[in-house]
């Protein structure tokens, strides 16, 4: 199997200013064509550091993909480092320059600055992949059958370069093994107990299959990966192993194919033609965003509301004033009335609601940070739940709770089916 | 200055299943106490690979922090690798075991499985930092003045361990340099032109100051970092340089301290006592989430609505049916009426609206993927804008648009002030 090393170049990642999302995207795309990422390295924007990293990466991988360090400003040194590493010169590439000129003209920039022109300079031995969404081209160097691709760092430039140009190129260049993956989502069993329950099955897995445990909130994702030359055979192998696994943990499995909980929900709602709406307070839009992040969600998701101020819960969702006064706004009762009001406002089969204190400041009624009440209303049945997650930071809290609400809804819908 | 290397252990990151957010968090926290992260390395869960990575990391850094690979399941090998690297044995630590027992009892798990008990086994030479939010403790090894901390991989366990225990420990252990940072947010100038405009200033910066360009959507963040022993002096140095910079690009600067656009907005709205509401379609909750992600946002943000289905825009926001029929739902006119309806529904000074096609599927009225209209309504003044971003994936599109809307609002509010 071919091995890749990803090198992320940029002080903004080392300093914690930016989260590296490129590596995740590139790793996923490479996995799909059977290339394994064996290392991801983030380094600073210094010529010697970059050269050293390329050198050590070539000792591990057949293929290096670097991102970052190709912008038009003074702090970018990747191109120079690459030329030096391969004993090459940098020169103006006419094709790239014309592409760049056309790109800038389309964006109304008729004058090409010296700084921009510099971006059309590439190592003379490089093969260029033109960047249709930015000014820095992707350059490929080849030596002794090993490849280095150098890409800019902006995620929306990286994605099309990888997907539309580099992946097809690699697929043609190498004859690759296939890697196929299935994810089994398990709820209601802690990881360690689950591991005991399926130990015998795990130990008996064929050699080309690997199992990983990925805890996500209160769900455990079992990832089963098969590697080999024959793709249909791998698919069949995975299916057979999952069929052996299911009887061991049947009641706790909520999905055996889709990975993300919001996609699992999408499958169920689409199939059963159910509609959904949301009323969020402490999750602040995150729950709605998770749901709408699924392409096609408009088929079942009719709308959401974030009545952040208490009086908006009363005015728009018809939460009773007495309920707020009697139980405070962070209460099971208010969550229940929010869900009922939401279901009515959007006229949906299912309504979800959250009310809590995301922190770090205390809520207006003094409820403890990390407390949340949520209601899942399916038809005229309401399930009320409480969570207490004081250790999560604000955004993590919003995400964790949203995920848990969707997960609980999935569990309810599945148990109805059984 | 002390140097750190972060090692992330886990096949789930190399395979693209999980985004590594721990490194970002740890890097930020270390930066705040003057420790520089010089490398981030992600490797797979194999004993030899882990040992090699530790070895090469100690050649660069004074300090290694590993995350991941400490779970109770079969695929975790970090602890063994560490013990082997330091020629140590693993043995049961009574204090850790009692901590673990108490932790599990608090969570209602009275029977301790063999697998869980294994988590209280640590290298005999290690100093243990107890984990209050999970079962795997943090272990520290020390050799020749160099430190290695090994942490579990779950982000909400990593954060308190780093923040409450490791950072204070390091602060006491080393006498550290300070690193101070200021971010200047610039809009309306492309990066390359900006670089030309401030070139002379940049070249004249004192040696202990470093400048980086961080493009975020259509905004460029200039990050100015100062390193030295005297914190008040660094703060003053940064302020002086920013005062020299401002006259060069004054009209394009929207902030000189806060970093995130939603926090810049928070400052302005809080200071001017303005209230805000949102009505989102194609951004699906992301805009609202960005706004509520700021602690204290309930002071100015009264509420948001995501009327995803067209009829909900008509029913709840009073968008006119004729407007939808005449101009389609993805139009300047609908965006304008959504903002007006939203302002009325939530009774706020400012209302924001978005309507567009996030893709990948086309919108119901055939508008092209990546098209979005948005309205910013301040008082009775409305500004309508259009964006066309066909190359962004669904979630990136939702985020990019949300960011741009907030950025435009900030620019409007600042230009009003001037």
Return the structural class of chain A: alpha/beta
Radius of gyration of chain A, CA atoms, in whole angstroms: 26 Å
Supply the CATH architecture of the largest domain in chain A: 3-Layer(aba) Sandwich
Mind describing the biggest β-sheet of chain A? Answer: 6 strands, mixed
By CATH, the topology of the largest domain in chain A is Molybdenum Cofactor Biosythetic Enzyme, Chain A
The total domain count of chain A is 3
State the end-to-end distance of chain A.
42 Å
Helical run tally of chain A: 16
Assigned CATH superfamily of the largest domain in chain A: MoaB/Mog-like domain
Low-pLDDT runs of chain A: none
Oligomer: homodimer
Brief digest:
Chains A, B: Belongs to the CinA family. Two copies of one chain form a homodimer. Chain A is of the alpha/beta class and 418 residues long.
């Amino acid at each position: 199997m071919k091995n890749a090393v990803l090198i992320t170049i940029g002080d903004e990642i080392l300093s914690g200013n930016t989260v590296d999302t490129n590596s995740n995207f590139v790793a996923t795309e490479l996995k799909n064509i059977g290339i394994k990422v064996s290392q991801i390295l983030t380094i600073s924007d210094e010529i010697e550091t970059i050269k050293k990293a390329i050198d050590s990466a070539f000792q591990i991988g057949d293929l290096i993909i670097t991102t970052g360090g190709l912008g038009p400003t003074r702090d970018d040194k990747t191109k120079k480092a690459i030329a030096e590493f391969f004993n090459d010169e940098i020169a103006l590439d006419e094709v790239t320059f014309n592409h760049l000129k056309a790109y800038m003209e389309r964006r109304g920039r008729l004058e090409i600055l010296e700084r921009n022109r510099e971006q059309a300079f590439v190592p003379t031995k490089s093969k260029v992949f033109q960047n249709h969404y930015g000014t820095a081209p992707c350059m490929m160097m080849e030596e002794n059958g090993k490849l280095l691709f150098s890409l800019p760092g902006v995620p929306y430039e990286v994605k099309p370069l990888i997907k539309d140009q580099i992946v097809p190129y690699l697929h043609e260049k190498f004859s690759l093994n296939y890697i196929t993956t299935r994810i089994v989502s398990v709820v209601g069993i802690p990881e360690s107990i689950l591991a005991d329950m399926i130990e015998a099955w795990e130990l008996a897995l064929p050699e080309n299959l690997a199992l990983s445990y990925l805890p996500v909130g209160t769900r455990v994702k079992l990832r089963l990966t098969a590697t080999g030359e024959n793709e249909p055979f791998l698919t069949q192998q995975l299916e057979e192993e999952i069929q052996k696994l299911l009887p061991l943990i049947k009641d706790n499995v909520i999905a055996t194919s889709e990975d993300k909980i919001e996609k699992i929900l999408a499958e169920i709602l689409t199939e059963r033609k159910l509609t959904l709406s949301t009323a969020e307070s402490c999750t602040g839009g995150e729950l709605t965003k998770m749901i709408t992040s699924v392409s096609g969600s408009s088929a079942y998701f009719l709308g959401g509301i974030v009545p952040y101020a208490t009086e908006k819960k009363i005015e728009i969702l018809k939460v009773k004033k007495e309920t707020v006064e009697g139980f405070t706004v962070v209460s099971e009762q208010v969550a229940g009335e929010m869900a009922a009001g939401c279901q009515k406002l959007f006229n949906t089969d299912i309504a979800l609601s959250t009310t809590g204190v995301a922190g770090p400041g205390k809520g207006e009624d003094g409820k403890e940070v990390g407390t949340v009440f949520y209601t899942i209303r399916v038809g005229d049945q309401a399930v009320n739940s409480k969570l207490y997650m004081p250790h999560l930071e604000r955004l993590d809290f919003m995400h964790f709770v949203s995920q848990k609400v969707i997960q609980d809804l999935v569990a309810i819908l599945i148990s109805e089916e059984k």
